[in-house]
């Protein structure tokens, strides 16, 4: 996996609060280091995929003498439909298609902003979709393989599926943080020093999930959503739905590809 210092926050509703203005937000999206505005023309020409083995292939910045995760950012509206940015992602152990709790990915749908003040979110949305489609086309298509795109919906009602892996195996997390002094930073969200509401042992899942959660408490870490409120405070899990569902947010995301030979699928993920 390429080394990177992800921007903080990765998802924020602070775009709606003073003293920020729509113009200042857009300027920051376009000019700040650490990423690219998602509507910038022809972004695919600046990228290539880094082969990550079983972890998939991640989009990195082309032409550098080191591997840097390619981060894109923009302002979006989180749809109220297909909202699974909840503490347990609506996981149902009785559903065989849901797999294991340890592999759970939270997800939501990003749409064009509906705020008149942030009209650039609506105007630039088609360009963002075009860039995401171009990222997917960087991977050669194999005959008979199914493509699972990050772009969802039908013409006129397009959305972007955003995902976040909630758990990480402890050994894997230690490897990922071995170069940063072991400060407990996970996916850009420091877990040391946070309250018990961010502890895996007390993570607020539904009753149907509690036994499955206890099974992985000793083997996994929790990866809280790197989502912050207007005061730059990490949003607690019990407030995910109230603060994020339907909200206008600034999002920073990476882009990944998984080539699954067994099921003959090319799967693409926009990752928070």
Any overview of this molecule?
The protein contains 6 helices and 16 strands. The chain has 272 residues and is of the alpha+beta class. It has a 5-stranded mixed barrel with strand order 5-6-9-16-15. A two-stranded antiparallel sheet has the order 10-13. It is globular, with a radius of gyration of 18 Å.
Shape: globular
Helical percent range? 10-25%
Mean pLDDT: 86
What's the order of the H and E elements? EHEEEEEHHEEEEHEEHEEHEE
Rounded to an integer in angstroms, the radius of gyration calculated over CA atoms is: 18 Å
Give the strand line-up of the largest sheet: 5-6-9-16-15
| Major sheet | 5 strands, mixed, barrel
* Subunit organisation of the chains: single chain
Number of helical segments?
Answer: 6
End-to-end Cα distance: 16 Å
Number of DSSP-assigned strands? 16
Percentage of residues in strands: 25-35%
Question: Low-confidence parts, pLDDT < 50 over ≥5 residues?
Answer: 1-9, 177-188
Computed structural class: alpha+beta
């Amino acid at each position: 996996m390429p080394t990177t210092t992800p921007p903080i926050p990765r998802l924020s509703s602070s775009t709606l609060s003073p003293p920020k203005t729509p113009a200042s937000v857009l300027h920051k999206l376009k000019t700040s280091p650490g990423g690219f505005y998602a509507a910038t023309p022809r972004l695919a020409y600046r990228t290539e995929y880094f082969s990550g083995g079983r972890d998939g292939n991640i989009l990195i910045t082309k032409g550098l003498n080191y591997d840097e995760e390619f981060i894109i950012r923009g302002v979006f509206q989180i749809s109220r439909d297909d909202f699974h940015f909840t503490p347990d992602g609506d996981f149902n152990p009785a559903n065989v298609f849901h797999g294991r709790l340890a592999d759970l990915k939270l997800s939501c749908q990003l749409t064009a902003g509906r705020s008149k003040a942030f009209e650039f979110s609506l105007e630039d949305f088609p360009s963002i979709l075009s860039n995401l489609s171009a990222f997917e086309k960087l991977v050669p298509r194999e005959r008979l393989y199914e493509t699972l795109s990050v772009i969802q919906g039908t013409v006129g009602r397009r959305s972007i599926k955003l995902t976040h892996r909630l758990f990480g195996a402890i050994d894997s997390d230690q490897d990922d943080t071995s170069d940063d002094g072991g400060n407990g930073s996970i996916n850009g969200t420091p877990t040391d020093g946070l309250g018990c509401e961010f502890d895996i042992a007390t993570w607020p899942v539904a009753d149907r999930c509690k036994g499955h959660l206890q099974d992985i408490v000793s083997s996994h870490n929790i990866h809280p959503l790197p989502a912050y409120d207007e005061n730059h405070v990490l949003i607690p899990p019990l407030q995910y739905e109230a603060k994020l569902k339907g909200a206008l947010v600034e999002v920073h995301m990476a882009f990944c590809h998984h080539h699954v030979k067994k099921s003959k699928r090319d799967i693409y993920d926009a990752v928070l």
